[in-house]
Each structure stands twice: as C-alpha cells, then as structure tokens.
Design goal:
Organism: Sagittula marina
Oligomer: single chain
Shape: globular
Radius of gyration: 21 Å
CATH architecture of the largest domain: 2-Layer Sandwich
Number of strands: 5
CATH topology of the largest domain: 60s Ribosomal Protein L30, Chain: A
Structural class: alpha+beta
CATH superfamily of the largest domain: OmpA-like domain
Subcellular location: Cell outer membrane
Keywords: Cell outer membrane, Membrane, Signal
Main location: membrane
CATH class of the largest domain: Alpha Beta
Pfam family, one: Gly-zipper_Omp
C-alpha cells in the first residue's frame, strides 16, 4: 500500500512538472518526447480522477486510483505519440518560415502574415498557399483532431479594425483548409486582433512577429 501511494505521488509530481514545462527532463531531440510526457500527464490526471471516483472505502479508492493512472497513461501516450508523428511529418513538408510548436497536448503551426497577405489585405497571395494546403492534407490524415485558426495583428491602427482584419485573415486560411476537404465542422475560426502579442509592438521586428496566423491542431480525447 505504501509502495502504491509512493508511486502515485511520484507520477502526480512528474505529471504536474510536465504540464508546466512541457517535458520532464526528456531529450528535446527525442522524437518521442511528447508521447512520454503525455503518458506521465495522463497517468497523473487518471490517478486523480480514479481517486475521486473511488468512494469512501480506502482500499477501493486506492485500486481506482491505480486503475485511473494506468488508463490515463495509455491515453496520454497515444495522444503524445500522434502529435510527435504529425509534427515530424509537418516539419518535412512545410517551409522554413513556418514555425511548429508541440506542447504535448496540441500542435501550434504559426505562419507570419507577411508571407500570406499584402499590407491591410485579407486576400491570400495565391503563390503562398502551399503550406496551408499541406496542413490541410495533414488534418485529413489525422481525422481525430479539431482545429482552431487564429488570426493576430500588431497594434498599429484601431483595435476594432485590427480585430476584424484578424478574423477575415483567419477565415481566408480556414477556407483553404476546407478547399482541401477538411470538414468545416472540425475548424473554429478566431480573430484575436492585437490582444495576444508574442513580442513588443514598439519595434518593427516585434510587430512582424505579432502579425501571424496560428493553426492549432487539437487531438480529440
């Protein structure tokens, strides 16, 4: 019993670490690092859920906790493995200007708006949609996912105008995904305007970073 409690405490601690850091000391070059992280996070989450569902009997509660940890670990590892695989494929397919971040529970594909749109325009430049189409084909290959397409701007101009522009640009990217056959029901289009900068709006370089469209790929649980 003491051994089980110690094991679950360790899993929970590692799982919380994974949630806050994205990994638990795994080699950042390990192509399976998110599968391992997902297993730990899933185990911690499953252990907590199992313990809450275990009732008042201490023995039953401990058994439910262990069972929850095992189920959670398997589910978390499966999600992490899927993300690792999809990330590797996208890195091979997409251009160098596209950033891909794997957080362990989602993929965030970031495309600078400067390479997609002319200034003050929500019309995609036709010769620069290939990367978006590649993402669309990836979404078709991994059907058990949903997607958020999120537009962002810098702080130049009126906030209301920037919000509208970011929404229209996100919709333009989403339209390319649906033209590749991705069901519209799997896509949520969001405009954030200037509200979520990732760099300072006081410099041209920072503004360039803030003008972006993010395609967030979320595995269904």
């Amino acid at each position: 019993m003491i051994r089980s409690s110690l094991m679950l405490s360790t899993i929970a601690a590692l799982g919380l670490s994974a949630c806050t850091t994205g990994s638990v000391g795994f080699d950042q070059n390990d192509p399976n690092r998110q599968a391992k992280t997902g297993a730990l996070v899933g185990a911690a989450t499953g252990a907590i859920a199992g313990r809450l569902a275990g009732g008042d009997d201490k023995g039953e509660r401990n058994r439910a906790t262990v069972a929850g940890a095992l189920v959670g670990a398997a589910a978390g590892a499966a999600i992490g493995n899927q993300l690792d695989k999809q990330e590797a494929e996208l890195r091979q397919q997409l251009g160098n200007q596209v950033d891909i971040r794997n957080t362990g529970d989602r993929l965030i594909v970031t495309m600078p708006q400067d390479i997609l749109f002319a200034t003050d325009s929500a019309t995609l430049q036709g010769n620069l949609t290939g990367d978006i189409r590649d993402v669309g084909r990836s979404l078709l290959a991994y059907p058990n996912t949903t997607t958020q397409v999120i537009g962002h701007t810098d702080s130049d101009g009126a906030a209301a105008y920037n919000l509208n522009l970011s929404q229209r640009r996100a919709q333009a990217v989403a339209n390319v995904l649906t033209s590749e056959g991705v069901p519209s029901g799997r896509i949520q289009v969001i405009g954030r305007g200037e509200d979520q900068p990732i760099a300072s709006n006081l410099t041209p370089q920072g503004k360039r970073q803030n003008r972006r469209v993010e395609i967030v790929i979320l595995p269904n649980t």
